[in-house]
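Team,

Forwarding the record for the chain on the shared tracking sheet. I've put the sequence and predicted structure together so nobody has to dig through attachments.
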Amino acid sequence: MTYLCVPIFVRDASQVRRDIASAAEAGADLVELRIDGFDGDARPLIETSILPVIVTDRAENEGGHGASSDRERVDRVCALSDVAKWIDVEIEAFFRLKEPPIAELESKLILSAHDFKGRPERMYTLVNMLTAGHVSKIVWMARSIRDNIEAFEILQHRRKPTIALCMGEAGLISRVLAKKFGAFLTFASLRDESATAPGQVTIHDMKRLYRWDAINPNTKVYGVVAQPVMHSMSPAIHNAAFERVGHDGVYLPMLVNAGYESFKAFMESFLAFEPLQLSGLSITLPHKENALKYLKEKGAEVEELAERIGAVNTIVIDRDSGRLRLSGQNTDYAAILDSITDKLGITREQLKDYRVAVIGAGGTGRTAVAALAHYGATVVVYNRTFERAEELAKEFNGQSGKVVAARMGKLCDPGAPGLQIYINTTSVGMHPKVDESPLGDDPPKFLSDTVVFDTIYNPMKTKLLQHAEQAGAKTIGGVEMFVRQAAAQFEAWTGKPAPRDLMRQTIEARLQK
């Protein structure tokens, strides 16, 4: 069993009792009472705790708040060993002061080491030394997401109950997957502001968002690869969908630093570590082009339109055949096309009869242009930098449909007639700048049969969409595109129909918070 432990800084008795009760209600198995910085008597708090207690008086150089000497700190926790389930002592203090009463309390001893700067020197010598306690604990600041693999390997080869965690945003997956690899425990904070280490997940997110109770050694791992990544809504909708259909998987945010070499190193190490059971990835900024390059280097199958667009947002990882097989897709283009055609009640082939304004020449704009041109639409690309619009138009013009560039200032001119569909692919109007619109305060005259599509999903109803609704036009929000592309990913990974209504409800609920 892997325990779920909530750490609590002890400041006053009433606060601690409330926090212990909240931790128990949230589903914690035990609590860690951090008494560094507390001058009172912790014994009554431990004696009356409704959850088993780890008592810790952490040294300043390992993230503690107290200024006591090693002798004072160790004596203090040892004196509470008769009422605590376990006591935590740092390895440096242990070897400096190894004498009774520590030696007599080995069965309750968590021997720990923490490095807030990076991977500890002589890591495996340190891991071996930590076995002098009943439980070994090693925690360090992740240099990159690849450090998590080393934490998992430590757990796999443990000789005693072991805690191995990486700190920081890149180390989040070590905290969630501790249960998969049989760790003694993992930590989850009661609230964001009460975290005792960088990257600590709240117990609410651990239990609800990441489905802690369902994780087991056979759980398949999926994730969104990005930088930054913690803002992503993808873990919420995919994990909810896994739960709905009974798929044994967990979907995690995976911070991979920008640059092809970082992406390649991540892929090589995570694919090679078979016990992880990495089974599918969503790829977003800044790695969509890196994903395509990597898959082509590997000779993997890549969807034709994804290659034409020059970006992959979905990687499928198949191990069922006995060998590793990778394939790449771009589910964004289908989401864009199907959002439009469903709204208009037409087929993709009928797009050849439509004239479309694509606002923005970035990654999503490129995807929209390629998809629409592929099906014969006439596309006008508008971008703040006209030269980028020209480059994009030249690349896709004539492949099927006609693609031309125009200056942003012309978009709202009466002299630009005939546009039936407007697609905003820029970030103008995105939270927190919700009072902005790519068309300003004086948009063109929208008609009742005009479609206005904003790929932004936060807020759900942008200023652009508000203007369009006021004019009686048909509107499509970014949530629709987001759900469609995510549903296609889910089905590619699991082979099961995606619960689209649930996915839509999940993202809408999170956006309304």
